[in-house]
Specification:
Layout: E1 3-10, E2 16-20, E3 23-25, H1 27-36, E4 40-49, E5 55-63
Antiparallel strand pairs: 1-2, 1-5, 2-3, 4-5
Length: 64
């Protein structure tokens, strides 16, 4: 099995996004895009925590 990791970051308003060449994608858009490429979402891994344990960045994990 092979895995691909997609970094998601938190915006000022608390929403998560993935930065692309054409703008930003929401987590749902990323999942739909990766599914169209034949990948399966399997989970996420926290990458960076902020004050009081707030999640700032995480990696979405896809299997292909």
């Amino acid at each position: 099995m092979r895995y691909k990791y997609v970094r998601m970051k938190s915006s000022i308003g608390g929403k998560y996004y993935h930065k692309t060449e054409n703008g930003k994608m929401s987590p749902r858009q990323v999942i739909e895009d990766m599914a169209a490429q034949g990948c399966r979402y399997v989970g996420n891994v926290p990458v960076q925590l902020g004050g009081y344990g707030a999640l700032i960045e995480y990696d979405m994990i896809f299997e292909y």
